[in-house]
Write a structure and sequence with these properties.
heterodimer, A: about 375 residues, mainly alpha, 15 helices, about 0% strand, B: about 190 residues, alpha+beta, 2 domains, seven-stranded antiparallel beta sheet, five-stranded antiparallel beta sheet, 2 helices
Chain lengths: ~375, ~190
């Protein structure tokens, strides 16, 4: 990021000398670059967060080993000390301007809280599987995120909720009888979404969106696959349409940095993959494939100009779609040579589409620039 | 957020989390210290897969309850609903405590003699109350965490001879594992903390 900022700074100086911008504009641009540069994640901040996650993992595994060399009361007190030192020390660091290190310490403290829950469970042979411990841990972490107004802690709380969902479903599939699907996850996601506005955590909101798609996938696997997948496709398409039709009001509500179309598109593609695998041997596959292709085209037409990421996701989806269609429709008719021929055709078609669309998008951008 | 407020928030948060954990520890230690001690017979639940990581799954002879033991079995209701089950235990001649009566919900009157005690359990929805097939109940003592590396030996021994579990019961019937015993020998005795 630093490279980009210094490059822009050089460019602004050059434009200023060439007379392209006046002194006031140059100063505004420079201050804007500076302001945004500081907000960007630095390499050091990322390293600090990785160190915190490793330390947190070390604490959790230390507890899980049920190691008898240190008396367990000493281990409990050690973890309590880490909780106290982590939260308070992190706050002190944050006030001194060391925001990244402070947030990292908070993550360590949250991990120590989780480790303590596990240790207390071991000490008294508390019943219930890991999922109930995860709920307690997640609530504690969410409370910490609110109290400290912390973005990383909000993301961590979402991560714990995700782990709860996955474990719950995994245990459920493990058992022989039917199990209660963890619909509570939707409530957790909604609560964390609300919290994320207070903690100013756009990252948490993105993770929640992706988690909800995961929830739908798990629900589809467990329940009536087709109905759930169709529901996901319709909801995703609606989210996409709303975000494209009224970007600003929708953005004010969801606060996803203008990336709701991307999430909607991911949900839509996921749903259609499920539908097509579900229908691969039965009727309706052709219809599903046609809807998928139409959806991809529509995504590029309506949302592709604003988002490069969405465009590339569309290409990926398109390539995958071609492979799926080939796999289902042609596999039985062609041999290996046919596969290579088909692969060549698919890649050629893909390249053709990408080149055409990218050129059009570039052309549109140039035209828009010329009009202004 | 101003400086002092952030530090105050961090301090309160840390103390709240530590206090929550301390409260759980204190509650469990109180049951261990003051609870009524009973000895239950251990029965392995699944011979293939007792050991799961760092704990063993345990069943007890009181894990299956005959429906006719339930004193307040509802007449119009064929299956159980998800909820509490209280089982009154009585000390047998061999030292093990066995169920004598059970109630859905709480016991109508407290256990009278020293040879009796109530344990609080839980039954899932859908068990057949009208028939003779036993109902499965759990009491929150079905997991036993073992020190690292000691699981396999215990698991193997458990298959060949009966183990017992000394359990402390709180006044409301909450059960807390106290010690795993192998015949007359106490294998793991839990300290208060």
């Amino acid at each position: 990021m630093a490279n980009y900022a210094s490059k822009v700074r050089q460019d602004i100086m050059r434009w200023r000398q060439a007379g392209l911008v006046d002194a006031a504009t140059a100063a505004t641009l420079l201050s804007d670059v500076e302001a945004n540069e500081r907000r960007a994640l630095s390499f050091g901040a990322i390293l600090a967060m990785m160190a915190a996650l490793l330390l947190g993992a070390a604490i959790l595994i230390f507890v899980a080993a049920n190691w008898e060399a240190i008396p367990r009361l000493a281990r409990v007190l050690l973890l309590f000390a880490v909780i106290l030192a982590g939260y308070v020390g992190g706050a002190l660091l944050k006030l001194r301007g060391q925001a990244a290190a402070g947030e990292a310490l908070w993550i360590v403290a949250a991990a120590a809280f989780g480790g303590s829950i596990a240790l207390v469970g071991q000490m008294y042979h508390l019943p219930g599987d890991e999922t109930s411990a995860l709920v307690t841990w997640g609530i504690g972490t969410a409370v910490a995120a609110v109290a400290l107004r912390s973005n990383p802690l909000t993301v961590a709380a979402v991560g714990i909720a995700d782990a709860w969902l996955v474990l719950k479903v995994a245990y459920g599939f493990d058992m022989y009888r039917s199990f209660a699907f963890p619909h509570l996850f939707v409530v957790m996601a909604a609560a964390l979404y609300g919290i994320s506005f207070w903690t100013r955590s756009q990252q948490a909101r993105h993770l929640i969106m992706l988690s909800l798609i995961l929830y739908a996938v798990l629900l589809a696997l467990d329940h009536d696959t087709l109905a759930v997948a169709i529901g996901l496709a319709v909801l995703s398409a609606a989210a996409f349409a709303a975000a494209v039709a009224a970007p600003e009001p929708v953005e004010r509500i969801v606060g996803l940095g203008g990336r709701l179309p991307l999430h909607g598109f991911i949900g839509f593609l996921t749903a259609l993959v499920i539908i097509q695998f579900d229908r691969a041997a039965g009727s309706g596959f052709g219809l599903a494939a046609a809807v998928a292709l139409a959806g991809i085209a529509a995504a590029i037409v309506f949302g592709g100009r604003e988002s490069r990421g969405l465009r590339w996701l569309a290409y990926l989806g398109f390539a995958f779609e071609l492979l799926v269609i080939y796999g289902v429709m042609m596999e039985t008719m062609l041999g290996t040579a046919g596969f290579f021929l088909a692969a060549a055709l698919i890649l050629g078609l893909l390249a053709f589409v990408i080149i055409r669309v990218e050129r059009r998008m570039a052309g549109v951008a140039t035209q828009a620039g010329a009009v202004q | 957020m101003t400086g002092k407020r952030l530090i105050a928030a961090a301090l309160i948060l840390a103390l709240a989390q530590i206090g929550f954990l301390g409260w759980i520890i204190a509650g469990r230690a109180a049951i261990l210290r003051d609870g009524k001690e009973v000895l239950l017979k251990v029965e392995p639940v699944d011979p293939r897969d007792l050991l799961r990581g760092d704990y063993v799954n345990l069943g007890y002879d009181i894990s299956s309850i005959a429906p006719d033991l339930i004193a307040n079995r509802p007449t119009g209701q064929a299956t159980s609903s998800d909820g509490r089950l209280t089982v009154r235990l009585k000390k047998g001649d061999d030292g093990y405590w066995r169920p004598v009566t059970a109630w859905l919900g709480k016991a109508p009157s407290p256990a009278a003699s020293d040879d009796e005690a109530d344990i609080a359990g839980h039954i899932a929805a859908g068990w057949d109350l009208a028939g003779d097939a036993p109902i499965s109940a759990d009491y929150g003592i079905e997991r036993f965490y073992l020190p690292e590396g000691e699981g396999i030996a215990i698991q193997n021994d458990m298959r060949v001879r009966p183990f017992g579990m000394r359990v402390a019961l709180a006044g409301d019937g909450t059960a807390q594992i106290k010690a795993l015993v192998d015949g007359d020998r106490t294998l793991f005795e839990e300290p208060l903390y």
